[in-house]
Design goal:
This protein has 184 residues and is an alpha+beta fold. The protein has four helices and ten strands, in the order αββββββββααββα. Helices cover 22% and strands 33% of the residues. The strands form three sheets. A five-stranded mixed β-sheet has the order 2-8-7-4-5, with no helix packed on it. Strands 1-3-6 form a three-stranded antiparallel β-sheet, with no helix packed on it. The protein is globular, with a radius of gyration of 21 Å.
């Protein structure tokens, strides 16, 4: 009897270990901005051969995870101008909220990129006036690596007086000017 219970427990544990939940690359999270005007790539991991469906704004695309568990879909260009939800389903479901389409700019550098809005000239006034919910900051945690990385740790923040103080000043002022000029 004990051997039978041990065997059942071992089978359950091995079945659980084989099953992998669908996961998104950390780049894809609540409050993110996706590049407008292009076929939008979305990728992540799942169990090998698992079907994964990504849906947003009335369209759905399906991919099958490869032998390493990697998958990718490309959504047709999304014309939505308001925040929307993006859903990923497989063995589990992930729903990302408050996603927007816009222009994605990478700002990189040293001291000039880490100088914050709060420390800028008229910082307190700039922070108080920063009601731009369509502007988002994706801040990547700095790490040292000797090999290319498949994923990084990051956070997406919506621009508001409560969050903008820590935004890159250069990134914020550039993004704000573009937002005011282009409306995205």
């Amino acid at each position: 009897m004990e051997l039978r219970l041990a065997l059942i427990a071992l089978l359950l544990l091995s079945a659980t270990a084989v099953r992998a939940e669908v996961a998104l690359n950390p780049l894809f999270a609540d409050h993110m901005v996706l590049q407008r005007g292009i076929a939008v790539p979305i990728w992540g991991t799942a169990a090998p051969d698992e079907e994964v469906t990504v849906s947003a704004c009335g369209q759905a695309k399906t991919a099958t995870a490869d032998a390493e568990g990697k998958w990718m879909v490309r959504l047709e260009p999304i014309d939505e101008t308001e925040p929307f939800a993006l859903t990923v389903t497989g063995g589990n479901e992930i729903v990302l909220q408050n996603v927007v389409m816009g222009d994605v700019w990478l700002c990189s550098g040293q001291s000039n990129m880490v100088w914050t809005v709060g420390n800028s000239v008229n910082g307190a006034e700039e922070v108080a006036a920063a009601e731009y919910p369509m502007i988002r900051l994706c801040q990547v945690t700095r790490v040292t690596a000797t090999e290319p990385q498949d994923a990084v740790k990051l956070t997406w923040s919506v621009c508001s007086p409560q969050t903008v103080g820590g935004f890159s000043g250069v990134g914020y002022f550039f993004g704000r000017e573009l937002h005011q000029e282009l409306g995205v």
